[in-house]
Amino acid sequence: MIWAHTIQLLDNINLSAAELFLSRLANLICFSGFVMAFGMGFAHSLNNTRSKNETALQVWKQPLTLYLAYLVCGVTYLTLVDNRPLSWGWGRWMVPMTILYAYTEFLATFVFFSLLTKPLRSLFTKVVIAPVFLFLSTFVALYLSFFPPSSPLVPILPVLIGYHKGAVFPLVYYMPWFLLGFWYVRLKLTPNVAVAVACFMASLPCAFFLYVEGELPRRDPPQAIWLMAAAFPLYLLFLLTSWAAKSDKMPAFMLAPGRQPLFFYVASSLVLFFLTYLFGQQNHAFLTNTLIAIALLSGLYGLTVAVEKLKRKAIRLTGPTY
């Protein structure tokens, strides 16, 4: 994802066919993967007694943090990349999420995922333990993707069901990925041939569309064929990450973004916004873009290591808090 953002922000000029395809492939699988991982994490949290006894502050901490990240990314993008002066003119659209500006739509959707999951945990549990409800909810979500609203002038609506005005990740359309992640953990499933075949069949229409049209289907707002397309790539990615989680040979450098996804998303976006402001978009070689993304990832990893060391040092000096 960081590599794709590097391409989109710092280059995006005369991209090679390989760069364009890989960038769109990252768009195809990243958000669905994050939503599925969120569902899996939510399922694991239900077995945690601490999560069942959270205070109001603890319950609101995650959505408020995500909303703050949403505002920071939105303001920074508009001022540094779009070169717009600070103004309530666009602030009045951003704050209530009436219009989702570039690189905020990802965070906006997760604000509402984090708000809804805990109050609706019993409903989600009933859905995933009954295959017919899981199938119906998936069918409804995919069916609704054919009818996004044409006007963006209703607060929060773009986050929930999208619009035709720009990039968006509607919660309702991507909800099946959350439910599938929840279902996978709740039923303690493991990778098998049946799952692999089902994922392959779900991705097949997109592969056929790519073969016929020479391009991936529409993402904004996402079509059903787009929403299903991530299934097989995500299955392969899940196999890889499952192996990595069990392996002691994976460097911490590779695992850090998965442990602190919000930090890596926001920090990498802000750095890329600032670099775009300083240097604008230039025509870079594929290798140059890749090296920039690796350097950015390495710098953020180094920062997280330094912060963790400071935290451990503070705990040793002051003692743990309970």
Descriptors for this entry?
322 residues; mainly alpha
User: What class do helices, strands and sheet pairing give?
Assistant: mainly alpha
What is the number of beta strands?
0
Radius of gyration: 20 Å
H-E order: HHHHHHHHHHHHHHHH
Short characterization:
The chain has 322 residues and is mostly helical. Helix content is 73%, strand content 0%.
Describe the structure.
It is a single chain. This protein has 322 residues and is mostly helical. It is built from 16 helices and no strands. The protein has one domain (22-254, 294-318). It has helices at 2-11, 17-45, 49-52, 56-81, 88-94, 105-117, 121-129, 131-144, 157-161, 171-186, 193-213, 224-229, 231-246, 252-259, 261-279, 286-318. It is globular, with a radius of gyration of 20 Å. The protein starts with a helix and ends with a helix.
Tell me the layout of helices and strands.
Blueprint lengths: L1 H10 L5 H29 L3 H4 L3 H26 L6 H7 L10 H13 L3 H9 L1 H14 L12 H5 L9 H16 L6 H21 L10 H6 L1 H16 L5 H8 L1 H19 L6 H33 L4
